[in-house]
Amino acid sequence: MKINQYIRRSASWEAPERDLSSILLDLNENQFLDGFLTEFLAAELKVQDLFTYPNYQSLLAELADYCKTSTDNLLLTNGADQAIDLVVRLLFSQGDRVVIPSPVFSFYYQMLSVAGVEPVIVGFERQAQSFTLSTRVVLDALHNCQGLILCNPNNPLGVRIDTEQLRILIEACVELDKPLIVDECYFEYLQHTCLDLCGAVRQLFIIRSFSKYFGLAGLRLGYVVTHSESINELLKVRGPWDVNHVAVKAALFCLNNRKALERAHCELARVKREIIEFSRAYGIVVFDSETNFLLLEDQRDGRLAKAFAKANIRICDCSKYPHSFGLLENILRVVVPAPSDLQAFKMAIMQGVGDQERRIDGKETLR
Fold first, then answer.
1. 3-class state of residue 186 by DSSP
2. Do 154 and 51 fall into the same domain?
3. Contact 296, 304 (CB under 8 A)
4. Which of 256, 274, 307 is the last residue in one of the domains?
């Protein structure tokens, strides 16, 4: 029996199995929407939502208003992962080469691999407590490739691509008539989008998600914003009901209650600032981040990671992240914890640095 050679050569993509009794800070899930989502469950869900097939037009209309575009420019997907899969399959063929500044969300490498597409890796560079990307290096690589993939803000680095840099790269792709995929799954934390620069031009494919800011990771809902002609092509390969009814209703609830979401995220921003100040006061390098997660630099002996493990706090050790060129050696990625988990997080920080006590803002903080 013949099996696609590129799929056979690729590694499998396995989601982690987790103990849900742990403090879950490893997958960038939104920790601040318990009350908001409880209200959704109580007020919106009906039995009919489980046994009927979904309708999409109401959500597409609300989403078009949110994105300031037309429903013809939108495609709903089963999470951003399906959006990545569909767009890669639409745009690239076996043997193509695609520029992908790295490190980046590693599912991109997976989908390029199974499609027989070669990733041309352009590395970020570390500068103090942040990371930068060379426009010139990306443009040089683009001339010999069939497209470009960007993640803005970047996962796992948490940094944004400079506005002027982004404009230059978009204009280059339009001029060369090469597709540009921009992953904006953390757009709501950055509040800057490619749509503000050029709208849904034919070469631009924007991928977004309801998993992060909107807290619907378990329902798997993403979407693509692009030219209507490309949407028509993507509809040929997406299933007619790949997005479930509960996800549709939850997304509508989120879009119709944005003020409540904003209040929740003001609290997230407050806790994020508190963690940054606390960690830096204990001598831990915390990198700049435009997202709901932070990168912390551990010691070479991994003492901070061990302290988190001892406290039953799941974090992401980025040391072996693919195509990171050593940038993420001894780097831990943590989502901003819920206020109820903040004390346990701080205790783990203190355990990790090994101090019995430290003065912070003029006050003693004991272990």
1. coil
2. yes
3. yes
4. 256
